[in-house]
Design brief:
The complex is a heterodimer of chains A (798) and B (116). With 798 residues, chain A is mainly alpha-helical. Chain A has 28 helices and nine strands. The radius of gyration of chain B is 18 Å and the shape is elongated. In chain B, 22% of the residues are buried. Classes of the chains: A mainly alpha (798), B mainly alpha (116).
Chain lengths: 798, 116
């Protein structure tokens, strides 16, 4: 597959032949095939056709992703790993050309690998988990074609989102993942809870999406101002200082060169163009030696004429409100909607009404990281505004705390994991706010593995509990209630160890993967000097959150697998079918991933002997070209080693402490029950506060639902009192007018008509008398007529 | 132009018979014919009235012709009228005969089948 030369890509080398499109086509075709063939052949080959097709499509996607990664991305030099593949032009508005294109760069490829690998595993798991997905709620119909088609479609949407080269394709993917999430949460649409949860997720996401759209539009508008201010159109001459040094357009694409080149400046919907425009300001003006090349060209800094970034920074709207901050706030609100941050997180716990594989794939591992991905993608923009960074950090910190406290007091296993996701996403936002987007993406990766593992293990647990708990078939929440569980360690040994591994990763026990990513985040926060809020306060909050995280993670672990006298597997274990074994294998693979991914990708710099760049954790080094141009530079290597050691030690201590407390409280739940009950009674109000996610639903009610209802009532009143009355008045007037018209019609118009006809009749009757049949009278008449004519002629004639 | 009444009034005073005399005679004949046609119930009698009217007209032709320029144009017309009257009488009498055959009467008051 050839790639088209892209005139807009003035920074990036010409594209590769990477079949990026196939990454999208496989899941898209898979979705179509699953939906159509899965239903068509269901009768002949049974209900397994749909899952088989979906899994095959996912495996094809995964293979494509791996081929691209190892064949195209890795062999290229570290700083040339940007492959852009424009597919087709979308529209041209003014000077803005919008194309539908894909891009493969370090950030995209990490997300693609995460989505495809987790997606494949979860598809495989779901193929066996959803043996009876209809569960009698789909009118007895096999729901599998629907389920797997949407699951594939979701993967397509997510890949479109992360591969999108520009805001427009990204927004397509953004909306599509939201729609797929809606369909899959409401998969059991006959259950009121599922349907409501789907609606809630969709509505809350709409708020975020509206903010995102507004933010994109405002950014476009704001950059439009640049053109007017400088009086220059796109294509104005300038000197670009890219990460490869000055670039020049040669016959064979852009090549590093000391010469000048054309720089488009103006509004754009393209990430890379936008970043490069903003980096025009990022030229090394203040610093003396930003780049080895500049030594030869000491005047390089003064070649920059246009400073869109400075313009954006200086710009104010509504009087004194910084424009850039408003744009970033809107974009962040959009990201918060998708990534379940304050104040838009309440949909995620409810989204657990969907099937467990959906929870694992969408609401833990991939979709919810879309917001994090967006902010990482736009880190060059957020880096400009200290206010925006502070806001992102604070929101992330608060979300982490709220999520952790809420997870602590849930009894529904899946809700624990959901709130845990909310909390972990908060950590990712903290990373983004601290200017350490790489650390945030790293946490996305580790979290994806351990949270998917937790969810799928929870699915196995729920299956096992549902099989032994009477009445769980009718009430899905019963089988998810952790108070019903306990003592499952012997019945589900593999699941237990997988769950334990994932729990340690979540809690951040030393050498577990969450430990590495969280440590990087905290280190970045501690060394951040761009935030206009005291970082020790945030660090303290996050330390408490880490403790709570460890506590709730191991609380769930002990409540599930211990807490009660050991249970024998009812008819699991012995009679575990092939499906059960495959699902367990998937969970174990994910657990392995959860264990391995952290140290493999994020071995801390201060533990290795390397210095500078080489000391960066591997994933961060891979991602570095994406973020290193951000201003101001926020590279981890500058962090004092002391801070890093401190964070690692503190994090480990807090995590172990949480584990210890959880073990003491919940391992033998029956023994500690009185103590726990006393605790619960003393802190009942806290418990209530936490259990409701700090009353977010009530806040929604007070702030959004009730005003909306009041508005609706007011509108109803206006409708009745004003509109209806006016309509009625008009109607009454119409009636009167009609009556009047009727009268006129009857008496005047009809009168005339009848009068004419009656006159004609009367004349006819009278005239008929002349025709008396007597010739004599005819003769007389003729004579009289002639006489009359003669007399007339005599008087009228000359 | 003198009025016909003036001419009539002047007629007795003239020694010679003039146009006025003819016209008065014609008018009397016409009136009698008209009265006959209008009042008589016998079809034959009505035909006789019509003959009178025709002859009154013929007389007028001759008188006007004679007293206007003395040519015989009027006489020619009078002959035409006589021929016409003969033809008319022939056709009319045939009709009357046919009517009599059908109705056994020539009273026009009874021949009213076409009356609506």
């Amino acid at each position: 597959m050839g790639s088209i030369p892209y005139s807009g890509g003035w920074l990036t080398p010409p594209g590769i032949d990477a079949p990026l499109v196939w990454l999208l086509l496989f899941p898209l075709l898979g979705a179509l095939a699953t939906a159509v063939l899965g239903s068509l052949f269901a009768r002949r080959f049974g209900g397994r056709v749909a899952p088989a097709l979906a899994v095959a499509a996912m495996l094809a996607t995964l293979v494509t992703a791996l081929v691209i990664f190892f064949g195209d991305v890795l062999p290229v030099g570290e700083r040339e790993r940007i492959f852009r593949q424009p597919l087709f032009p979308l529209f041209v508005v003014g000077g803005i050309r919008v194309a539908f294109g894909l891009v493969m760069d370090p950030l995209s490829v990490v997300m693609v690998l995460l989505v495809t690998s987790l997606g494949s595993l979860i598809h495989l798991y779901a193929a066996f988990y959803m043996e009876d997905p209809g569960q009698g709620v789909d009118g007895g119909k096999d729901g599998r074609p629907r389920f797997f088609a949407f699951l594939n479609l979701f993967v397509f949407s997510m890949l479109l989102l992360v591969l999108a080269d520009g805001f427009v394709p990204l927004f397509f993917g953004w909306e599509a993942v939201g729609a797929c999430s809606y369909f899959l949460i409401g998969f059991w649409y006959r259950r009121a809870a599922a349907a409501d949860a789907a609606t809630k997720a969709f509505l809350v996401n709409r708020v975020g999406d509206a903010a995102l759209l507004l933010g994109i539009s405002m950014l476009l508008w704001g950059m439009g101002g640049v053109e007017m201010v400088t009086g220059s159109a796109r294509g104005q001459l300038g000197n670009v200082w890219t990460r490869n040094g000055p670039m020049v357009e040669t016959g064979e694409g852009l090549q590093p060169s000391p010469g000048r080149q054309k720089v488009p400046v103006g509004p754009t919907l393209d990430f890379h163009e936008l970043r490069d425009e903003l980096r025009l300001e990022m030229m090394p003006r203040a610093t003396a030696k930003p780049n080895p090349d500049s030594a030869a060209r000491p005047d390089a800094a003064h070649d920059v004429h246009f400073r869109p970034a400075a313009y954006l920074l200086d710009r104010k709207i509504f009087g004194r409100l910084p424009f850039l901050f408003v744009v970033c706030a809107l974009l962040m609100l959009g990201a918060a909607g998708k990534s379940a941050q304050l104040p838009l997180f309440a949909w995620l716990p409810d989204a657990m009404a969907g099937p467990t594989p959906v929870s694992a794939l969408i609401h833990a591992a991939t979709l919810v990281t879309a917001g994090v991905y967006l902010l990482a993608r736009l880190s060059f923009l957020f880096a400009l505004s200290a206010g925006a960074l502070t806001m992102v950090t604070v929101i992330g910190t608060l979300t982490a705390l709220v999520g952790a406290t809420a997870a602590l007091v849930q009894n529904d296993l899946k809700r624990v994991l959901a709130y845990s996701t909310v909390s972990q996403l908060g950590y990712m936002f903290v990373a983004l706010g601290a200017g350490a987007a790489g650390a945030g993406v790293f946490h996305v990766v580790t979290h994806g593995f351990f949270k998917a593992c937790l969810f799928l293990a929870a699915g196995l647990v729920v299956h096992a509990v549902a099989a032994t708990t009477p009445g769980a078939g009718e009430r899905p929440d019963l089988a998810q209630d952790m108070r019903q569980m306990g003592g499952l360690a012997r019945a589900l040994p593999a699941t237990r160890w997988a769950y334990f591994a994932a729990c340690s990763a979540l809690a951040g026990l030393p050498f577990a993967s969450g430990f590495f990513s969280k440590d990087l985040i905290l280190t970045a926060l501690a060394s951040s000097d761009r935030l206009s809020i005291s970082t020790p306060v945030l660090l303290a909050v996050l330390a408490v959150t880490s403790f709570l995280t460890s506590l709730y993670a191991f609380r769930s672990y002990y409540l599930i697998f211990f807490a009660r006298p050991p249970r024998e597997a009812a008819h699991h274990g012995d009679h575990a079918g092939a499906g059960e074994r495959v699902m367990t294998a998937v969970v174990l693979v994910l657990a392995l991933g959860a264990v391995v991914v952290g140290p493999a990708l994020g071995w801390p710099g201060n533990w290795s002997s390397g210095h500078g760049e080489s000391a960066l954790p591997r994933l961060l080094r891979f991602l570095a070209p994406m973020f290193e141009g951000d201003w101001p530079r926020r590279d981890t290597p500058r962090t004092p080693a002391m801070v890093e050691w401190g964070m690692q030690l503190g994090g480990a201590l807090v995590a172990v402490l949480g584990w210890a407390v959880a073990r003491a409280l919940y391992r033998d739940a029956e023994a500690t029950a009185p103590a726990r009950r006393r605790l619960a009674e003393r802190y009942a109000f806290l418990r209530r506060l936490f259990a409701t996610g700090w009353q977010t639903d009530r806040a929604y009610h007070l702030l959004a639902v009730r005003p909306a209802l009041a508005l609706a009532r007011a509108a109803t009143w206006v409708d009745r009192a004003v509109v209806d009355r006016a309509v009625n008045a008009v109607a009454a007037l119409g009636l009167r007018l009609g009556w009047l018209a009727g009268v006129i019609d009857r008496h005047a118009v009809d009168g005339v008509v009848n009068g004419v006809s009656e006159a004609a009749l009367a004349a006819g009757r009278r005239g008929a008398r002349l025709q008396n049949g007597r010739i004599n009278s005819y003769v007389l008449g003729i004579a009289a007529g002639i006489a009359a004519l003669v007399v007339l002629a005599y008087f009228l004639g000359s | 132009m003198t009025s016909p009444l003036a001419t009539l009034a002047a007629a007795p005073t003239l020694a010679a018979i003039g146009l006025g005399h003819f016209l008065v005679l014609s008018a009397v004949m016409f009136t009698l014919g008209l009265i006959t046609a209008a009042t008589r119930r016998s079809a034959v009698a009505i035909l006789m009235g019509v003959e009178l009217i025709l002859n009154a007209a013929a007389l007028n032709f001759v008188a006007f012709s004679h007293y206007s320029h003395g040519a015989i144009t009027g006489q020619v017309f009078a002959v035409f009228v006589v021929v016409l009257a003969a033809a008319e009488a022939t056709v009319a009498l045939a009709i009357v005969l046919a009517v009599f055959r059908g109705f056994r009467t020539v009273d026009v008051a009874d021949v009213n089948t076409l009356k609506g």
